[in-house]
Specification:
Length: 278
């Protein structure tokens, strides 16, 4: 090969490398733009938390906190307020952070799953060795990272979730009312609600998420005149939920849930799977 050929080959390779570099730079620029848009949206949503009005105490209680009925952007919402201390046990932290991670996930947008509109996490106080306490001026954060508590060591963290409001309460609170229905009407209602819960669970499982605590008290009902029974069912309360890796078919040695609703393999071996979840 002549010197000219070598020189031409080097130029060609340099041009190709330049094109590949430019392509990579363009991809990074696009990714940065998308990230900035998402961050801006999160900041706007969190700012809206300060605009909640007409918040009143509700008789309903969340698994890990208190629930208030309020108005946000003209819509009725359920405002869940939870406090997380760095003095909590590891299991308590995991349960609360699992709730946060699942609740804020955009992938959980489904008609049969409770929708979370926005959330806020804010350190509200810090305890010193002398026993005194002082307020924290740290800004709120909006992360679903399971390890975010490490950033708030020494703080008590207030978590606020804004969820869609289910005006009819839990399925457990309504079960006694079904006994007054005629058999055919009750059967239609049971089948309709069962299919809605099943669709919600199918969506969760398609994302490799295990609910781990499915029961009547964790299924909320919302008024819907277009339905034959007059309401719809939505799966809620993801405090014990677990995210599996794509290659996983089950999780071992994880005995969590409500004892009366746990599958035998979960009680005996801690074998959590999509099958045991329902």
């Amino acid at each position: 090969m002549t010197f000219h050929s070598y020189f031409q080959s080097d130029i060609t390779e340099a041009v190709m490398a330049q094109k590949q570099l430019q392509k990579a730079m363009d991809l990074l620029a696009d990714e940065k733009l998308r990230t900035n848009v998402l961050l801006q949206r999160q900041h706007e949503l969190i700012a809206c938390l300060s605009k909640i009005d007409n918040a009143v105490s509700s008789s309903e209680k969340a698994q890990f906190g208190k629930v208030y009925k309020g108005t946000w952007r003209g819509s009725t919402v359920a405002m869940k307020v939870m406090a997380m201390s760095d003095k909590m046990s590891d299991s308590e932290k995991r349960e609360r952070m699992a709730l946060m991670e699942t609740a804020i996930s955009s992938s959980l947008s489904h008609p049969s799953i409770i929708q979370t509109y926005t959330f806020s996490m804010k350190p509200i106080m810090i305890s010193t060795r002398s026993g005194s306490q002082m307020s924290s001026g740290s800004p709120a954060t909006s992360s679903g990272d399971l390890h975010i508590l490490k950033d708030f060591s020494g703080f008590e963290v207030q978590v606020v979730l804004l969820d869609e409001y289910c005006d009819l309460g839990s399925l457990r609170s309504r079960l006694d009312l079904f006994s007054g229905m005629q058999y055919k009407q009750m059967l239609k209602t049971v089948l309709e609600l069962g299919s809605e819960v099943a669709r919600g669970m199918v969506h969760l499982h398609s994302l490799n998420i295990l609910h781990s605590d499915l029961k009547a008290v964790n299924i909320l009902l919302q008024n819907n005149p277009s339905k034959p029974c007059g309401f719809i069912a939505k799966v809620s309360d993801f405090g014990l939920s677990v995210k599996m890796d794509l290659a996983m078919t089950h999780i071992s040695d994880l005995s969590i849930g409500t004892l009366t609703h746990m599958a035998p393999e979960v009680i005996l071996n801690g074998h959590q799977s999509k099958a045991s979840d329902v």
